[in-house]
Each structure stands twice: as C-alpha cells, then as structure tokens.
Design a protein that fits this description.
The chain has 370 residues and is an alpha+beta fold. The chain has 15 helices and five strands. It has two domains: 87 residues, no CATH class; 205 residues, Orthogonal Bundle (MetI-like fold), CATH 1.10.3720. Helix 2 packs across helix 15, helix 6 runs antiparallel to helix 7 and helix 11 packs antiparallel against helix 12. The protein is elongated and about 95 Å long. It starts with 8 loop residues before the first helix and ends in a 5-residue tail after the last helix.
C-alpha cells in the first residue's frame, strides 16, 4: 500500500524544522535551560534564597577552588514549606565559616578561619553545645566540617558563582516570557484592529506605532522603569511595553492582505461578527511571521534586561541577574579575573543565540514559498 503523505501545513513545517540541525539543537538547549530555571534551587550547591550565602574571606576565587567549610547550625527552625524551598530557596540561618584547620579542646571547637596568606588567624571558639547533643565529637566534625568545591569559583562577595548563575537564569526566562506575552497581547490586538477596520482607527494606531517606534528602545524602557519604580515586575512590564510595535506592524500588514480573501468575504456575508471574523478566520492565517518575531523579541528582552541590570535599574540585589553580575565584576577583567564577568556574559550570549537560531529555523519552516 503506498505511503500517504500529509498535506497539513503544520506537519510539513514541523518536518522542515526537524531537518534544521541548529534549530533542533537550540530547541533542546532552551528546554534544558527552562528545566534549570524551574529547579534551580534543587541543582544549585547554595540553595539559600537568591543563592546569597556570603564568605568574604574567599572572595573572587577561581573555578575549582576548594576550602574546608564549618557549618554552625542555628537554633531557629525554618517554617518554609517543601514547595517554598523547592522553588524559592531555603531561608538558611546556619553560619558557614571557611576554615584552614580545626581542633577540639575539651568542650570547645577551635576553628582557624581561612586566610589567603600563610598567617594563622585568631581561632573562633565554638562551644560543642551549639551542635546536636546526641552526636559525638567525631560525628560532629564528620557532619559539620566538609570540603566545599566551588566549580565556577566565587564572586567578589564570596558567593558561589555557579549557584548565582543557575538561579539567575530565572530572570532571563521570566523577562522573556512576560515581555513577549505583553507584546503579543498589545501588538496583535492593535495590529489586527488597524488592519481590519482601517480609516481613522488605522490612522490613530499607526500614529501611536510611529511615535513609539521613534523613541530609542533603551531610553523608553528606562523612562517607563523610572515611572513605575525599580523592581522585578516593573522591568518586565517596561520591556514588554516597548516590544509590541514590531508585532503590531507585522500583524497589520498580514491582516490587510488576508482580509481580501474570499473566505473573509463569505464570513461577512453570513453575518458573522467582526470579532469572530478576526479571531477565527483572519488571525489564524496571519500569525506565522509573529511566531518568528516572538523568538527574536525573546532574545531582545534578555539583552535589554541585562543592559538595565548593568545600569543598575534592573532586578535589584540580592536577586541574581546575569547583567548585574557583569556590572559587579567588569572591573575585574583588568585584574586577571576576567572569568567573573565572562561566565555570565557567555550565559547571556548562549541563550540569546539559541533564541535567534530557533527564530531563523522557524522562519525557514514556516516559509510557504520554500
């Protein structure tokens, strides 16, 4: 029996997309990054809120740095639920101390703090009563003194750079999704209205589009951010409000073309409402270019957020953001510790490139002429 080939445009587009190596690779990379963003605190070595456990004595250490870490348990009991710890980190009240060596004298643990030179600092005297009473001295040292490896090193505050990178990916993904969602809602609504109704509606919307288009994107984002105030969601909204213009222009052009089709004329003759004609007949046949633009807007939103964080008006400390991490450490490039700025820079570059590549692959797959 001969094989029946599907004529479905969506299936044909999917088949074309699967043949694009870089598009498929980018898709899996984005899915991998999304998994990390959701379960960042499970994967991060430092699972405290915002991965903000500071150790100033071991600041700016290179990747692979190892040190003995003494953990002094706190008497406070955390009330965080399992899901709160899973998605937002743990309110870590334990005191972690990087040490060179330790010894137990009587009922006191003498811990010598870590020092970069060969000098021995004044030891910290920690009573053994601060540890669980049911443990012996050997069990206390085995359980609460461990060798910690910082795979990507530490930042200028002694925080684990790998944990900050893993948690910081949430900002990039969140800004992308929220900004693209806002731009799609505004762009599709205004673009469809302008293209379908024409006349004064089209003139007013096009005037608004041209005015918004003429303002530099970063300047407009800064103005909106300052008007809404510094903060997490304010930045997301500000970026979204600046990215709808291109979507609206493309949707308007598509609607102007599609509304001349015979099936739209037939729908009008049958007495369908304008809302139904737009949503059921015009938009489904006009959104292929919008999907490509959304991928590019996702990448653009990540870059804009990184720029805002670099300027200090993005996500505010101690929230980890790749742009803020570059801002904190760009001066270290000339101090022989360029990796502190290069690592988050590579994170931004790889994520943006993945979205740009998947956008190109979608453009090729959805190209009817191809």
């Amino acid at each position: 029996m001969p094989e029946i080939k599907s004529n479905s445009l969506s299936k044909l587009a999917l088949q074309k997309f699967k043949k694009n190596f870089w598009g498929v690779l980018s898709f899996y990379f984005i899915v991998f990054c999304a998994f990390i963003a959701v379960f960042a605190y499970v994967l991060a070595p430092d699972d405290s809120k915002n991965a903000n456990q500071m150790h100033l004595s071991i600041h700016s250490k290179p990747p692979g740095f190892e040190v003995k870490m003494l953990t002094v348990p706190s008497q406070k009991v955390s009330n965080d639920s399992f899901f709160s710890r899973l998605f937002f980190g743990e309110q870590n009240t334990d005191n972690e101390i990087p040490i060179e060596k330790f010894e137990v004298v009587g009922d006191v643990l003498k811990a010598y703090p870590y020092s970069e030179d060969d000098t021995t600092g004044i030891p910290k005297m920690i009573p053994l009563q601060k540890f669980p009473k049911e443990l012996t001295t050997d069990e206390i040292t085995d359980q609460f003194v461990n060798t910690t490896t910082f795979i990507l090193g530490t930042d200028k505050y002694g925080r684990d750079l790998l944990s900050r990178m893993l948690v910081g990916i949430r900002i990039s993904f969140s800004i992308g999704f929220v900004a693209v969602l806002i731009s799609l809602i505004l762009g599709i609504s205004l673009g469809a209205a302008a293209g379908y109704f024409g006349g004064r509606v089209d003139a007013v919307i096009m005037w608004l589009i041209n005015v918004t288009w003429s303002i530099p994107t970063l300047l407009l984002v800064i103005a909106i951010t300052l008007a809404l105030g510094k903060g997490f969601w304010q930045v997301f909204i500000a970026v979204g409000l600046t990215m709808w213009v291109e979507v609206a222009r493309v949707v308007r052009g598509q609607v102007l073309s599609v509304k001349q089709m015979q099936y739209v004329t037939a729908a009008k003759a049958l007495g369908f409402t304008n809302f139904r004609i737009i949503t059921k007949h015009i938009l489904p046949n006009s959104l292929a270019p919008v999907i490509v633009i959304s991928a590019a807007n996702f990448a653009g939103a990540i870059l804009i957020e990184s720029g805002l964080s670099f300027l200090g008006i993005g996500a505010q400390p101690p929230t980890p953001s790749w742009g803020a991490m570059i801002k904190d450490h760009y001066s270290y490039i000339i101090l022989g510790k360029a990796y502190l700025a290069i690592i988050p820079g590579l994170g931004i570059m790889s994520l943006v490139m993945a979205f740009m590549l998947i956008g190109n692959a979608l453009r090729d797959a959805l190209d009817v002429k191809g």
